[in-house]
Amino acid sequence: MVGEMSIVPGPKYAAYSWSSSSSSGHAGGFGNNTVVDKVPPEMRYLVDIHWYQFPPLNPLWHGILGFVMVILGIVSIAGNGMVIYIFTTTKSLRTPSNFFVVNLALSDFFMMFCMSPPMVINCYYETWVLGPMFCQIYALLGSQFGCVSIWSMTLIAFDRYNVIVKGLAAKPLTIGGALLQILAINIFSALWTIAPMFGWNRYVPEGNMTACGTDYLSKDWLSRSYILAYSCACYYLPLFLIIYSYFFIIQAVAAHEKAMREQAKKMNVTSLRSSAENQSTSAEIKLAKVALMTISLWVMAWTPYLVINYSGVFETMSIPPLFTIWGSLFAKANAIYNPIVYGISHPKYRAALFARFPSLACTGGEGGRGGDTTSTTTTVTDGDKANA
After folding, report:
1. Residue 380: closest CA among 184, 4, 94, 31
2. Looking at residue 151, what is its pLDDT?
3. Mean pLDDT of all residues in 316-331
4. pLDDT digits (tens, 9 = 90+) for 357-366
5. Crossing angle, helix 321-345 and helix 275-314, to 10 degrees?
6. What value does the mean pLDDT of the chain take?
7. Is 71 contained in some domain?
8. Per-residue 3-state assignment (H helix, E strand, C coil) for the chain
């Protein structure tokens, strides 16, 4: 009996030497010495030598990451799916400007639809098990949908700029014009994201070995130049354009409000606006704030990933595998923010949502009234432009 017990294998987690690893990332007496040891042989050529210095991650981290990805996936797919359904099936919401909102929801929906299941599977196996080709596809789709999201927000910001700053001088946005702009940003994003498939940088497993992304550890400047150029095209440039738009939006609103107050003071009245005009103005400003909040959340979500990439390109710090987990989580969490922000702050959307799903209306009467009182001004419609 003793002999039989002596050959019984120990717990499968005994192979993980995370608790007894040395500073060099190796441990004695166990099968797995580095975070790369579980990577299938056909994937090894994609793994940078940098990761061989780190011991395997505590399996608890893989479990936590997988669980969080399940939650993020469910919330994002349900939330963005509901936004798409409400905006496309409610006639009053099918305006040219709201096509940008739907495109944003679509990119967030497909990001988590394509990213969450593979991540959960790989977290279960504690390494990438879906093969080199799917690693390329996974990283390409994540990069594509992320770039489309921020450029969709840029289009929303430009649209608000046209309505609030230019007013009657703005060229009315048509459905054809909106679709053309959406097509343009999708093609623009695709050109950048397929470049690594043709030799300008490459897609490789990240440090936690359960996801794939751009190779920011290569020492050659061809690969490094891609990281710098892509960050300019899909991070800095749209961010600059968004800040530019909102700077003048805020400036225009502030100047207009000041002029209205001074005129009202001269006429000894409280306000020059009617009640309906006050509601219209507050709705315009409110939607601008909603878009600004969404953009701020996007910046918070993708900046950690940018920091990781730049740390590798400029070798400013040694990137541990655990750090790459946070980058992945922050980036993918962005896909759940937008439906929450629009669901809470878009009265007309909220009214339509409560009408379709009454059980969601904890304060259904209030939501309905909010939708009614701002029914003509909560979105950027041609009517808004006429009244601007």
Report:
1. 94
2. 93
3. 85
4. 777 665 444 4
5. 170
6. 79
7. yes
8. CHHHHHCCCCCHHHHCCCCCCCCCCCCCCCCCCCCCCCCCHHHHHHCCHHHHHCCCCCHHHHHHHHHHHHHHHHHHHHHHHHHHHHHHHCHHHCCHHHHHHHHHHHHHHHHHHHHHHHHHHHHHHCCCCCCHHHHHHHHHHHHHHHHHHHHHHHHHHHHHHHHHHHHHHCCCCCHHHHHHHHHHHHHHHHHHHHHHHHCCCCEEECCCCCCEEECCCCCCHHHHHHHHHHHHHHHHHHHHHHHHHHHHHHHHHHHHHHHHHHHHHHCCCCCCCCHHHHHHHHHHHHHHHHHHHHHHHHHHHHHHHHHHHHHHHHCCCCCCHHHHHHHHHHHHHHHHHHHHHHHHHCHHHHHHHHHHCHHHCCCHHHHHHHHHHCCCCCCCCHHHHHHC
Q: How far is Cα of residue 187 from the mean position of the Cα atoms in its chain?
A: 18
Say what the pLDDT of residue 30 is: 40
Judged by phi (left if over 0) then psi (alpha if -120 to 50, else beta), residue 319 lies in beta
Cα angle value 296/297/299 (rounded, 5°): 65
Q: What is the CATH number of the domain that holds 64?
A: 1.20.1070.10
- Region of 25 (left: φ > 0; alpha: ψ -120 to 50; beta: rest) is left
CA atoms of 342 and 345, how far apart (whole Å): 5
Give residue 225's domain range: 59-383
Number of compact structural domains in the chain: 1
pLDDT single digits (tens) 2-41: 444 433 333 333 333 344 333 333 333 344 589 999 999 9
Indicate whether 366 belongs to any domain: yes
